[in-house]
UniProtKB/TrEMBL annotation:
It holds the Pfam family YjbQ. The lineage of its organism: Bacteria, Candidatus Daviesiibacteriota. Belongs to the UPF0047 family. It comes from the Bacteria. This is Secondary thiamine-phosphate synthase enzyme. InterPro entries: UPF0047_YjbQ-like, YjbQ-like_sf.
């Protein structure tokens, strides 16, 4: 069987947010006429994760975002904190700088250690979801979503993040329930 790849590409201009991508994945499954199989959802970024959770309820999303930002302090040198007297979450001093990585080829001068730590603690780089009867086999309140920890608005020297999420769709020959 052939495996299919759909890439969801988008500019990420808001720092921290959760966005439901369940419908977009299900539309692709239906378009391909896949009845059963597996979907692998993969983030191509270290500060953009994938989650499966209840994301349709806005108050829960606000609680999750508050918890995430409150429990991992932001770097005081970050553009989100520096010069922002209204920043309402804890801050600290980290040592990370993108320029210290020999693989970094960006002009990134933000200090985003907190974004990396949040991605490690509160999301996954990829998730696997079964396909049954032509759609994602999720629980009643579950959705597949991206969890952005380091979106950029393009102000200053920080580039707008161009993000890519891969959706690998692998059909199977059917499901035999035992």
């Amino acid at each position: 069987m052939k495996t299919y790849l759909k890439e969801i590409k988008f500019p990420s201009t808001k720092h921290t947010y959760i966005k439901d991508i369940t419908e977009e994945i299900n539309k692709t499954i239906k378009k391909l006429k896949v009845d059963s199989g597996f979907v692998f959802v993969n983030s191509k970024h270290t500060t953009l994760g994938i989650i499966i959770n209840e994301v349709a309820e806005p108050n829960l999303l606000e609680d999750v975002l508050y918890h995430t930002l409150h429990h991992v302090p932001e770097d005081r040198r970050s553009t989100r904190v520096a010069g922002n007297k209204n920043y309402k979450h804890p801050t600290t001093n980290y040592t990370h700088r993108c320029q210290d990585n020999p693989h970094c080829d960006e002009m990134d001068e933000d200090y985003n250690a907190a974004s990396h730590i949040r991605a490690l603690l509160f999301s996954h780089p990829s998730v696997v979801v079964p396909i049954k009867d032509g759609e994602l086999e999720l629980g009643k309140y579950q959705q597949v979503a991206i969890f952005e920890f380091d979106g950029r608005d393009g102000k200053g020297k920080n580039p707008i993040r161009q993000r890519t999420v891969q959706v690998w769709i692998h059909p199977t020959d059917g499901i035999e329930i035992v």
